[in-house]
């Protein structure tokens, strides 16, 4: 993409709304000076914040909206009263109409997925969209999906996830044939539920041109970075994500307690604070904030609802990169090249349904 990337922002989404979204957008503009913005929200709240960031205001088209989706709204409720008029819907619709290249929201995940599916529609051959995130590893980062969009999966849905995750990895990591693994309870082919074993068989036999299937991976492989893309269904993926976030916070608390326990430990911290600073930066969840909704006819990025401006800027920059590197074209190319049976999964439940 040679023209400037335009980001559509739901200013009212998240735990803190415009007080985080607008400073986050300003930080994004500092890092991506050619970015443009279309912002949707309450004029009385948003415009004073925009006035405090003149460069951002100059790069922004602002639209007032009277309705905002609450963080505890059910998806069906959000659709009933927020369709066509809420800041969340209008931001998604801007991507649909071409006014923007990508939508970023820190709002209610279920509502955002439901509205995105209703407004943008799913891509042909994709039965259910997924949420993909970047996962810090000892080797760098991996793409992990699904982390919460769809509960349960049959074999073909897992294959679809592998294909879409590999397309994202090609964009993010700039590699032609990303390595992919299916998350399982063991690496042996006889282990695991039938859907996972069948998905492994399909991927092995397909030998796809832009995907290097490596077999099953286990939970500890997430942190090792054994493969570029880890595939699982949304129930397991969301638990793994929340467990990793909680473990990172737990380790941080342990380190802080240990460093303040005695005079010698405090002195030791002074000598090692550079290393601790590097560790803190590596474990900072704000640096990899943002989940990509894959499988839709448009790019939508979900920011963590409780993040700060730095975290929201990370999500916005992810959206910028996805649009600039033409994620949609790569996903379409890889999905179209993957043969699949006509039967669609019947047993899956979607996390965004009421």
Brief overview:
Strands 3-2-1-4-12-11-5-6-10-8-9 form an 11-stranded mixed β-sheet, sandwiched between helices. The protein contains 13 helices and 13 strands. Strand 1 (6-10), helix 1 and strand 2 (36-41) form a beta-alpha-beta unit.
Word description of this protein:
With 354 residues, this protein is of the alpha/beta class. It is 48% helix and 17% strand. It has helices at residues 18-31, 43-51, 54-58, 75-82, 87-97, 109-120, 155-173, 194-206, 220-224, 234-259, 263-283, 309-324, 327-336; strands at residues 6-10, 36-41, 60-64, 102-105, 130-137, 140-145, 150-151, 179-183, 212-217, 229-231, 291-294, 300-302, 349-350. The chain has an eleven-stranded mixed β-sheet with strand order 3-2-1-4-12-11-5-6-10-8-9, with helices on both faces. It has a two-stranded antiparallel ribbon with strand order 7-13. α1 links the parallel β1 (6-10) and β2 (36-41). α7 (155-173) packs across α8 (194-206). The longest helix is centred in the last third of the chain and has 26 residues, at 234-259. The chain is globular, with a radius of gyration of 21 Å. It starts with 5 loop residues before the first strand and ends with a strand. The model is unreliable at 341-354 (pLDDT under 50).
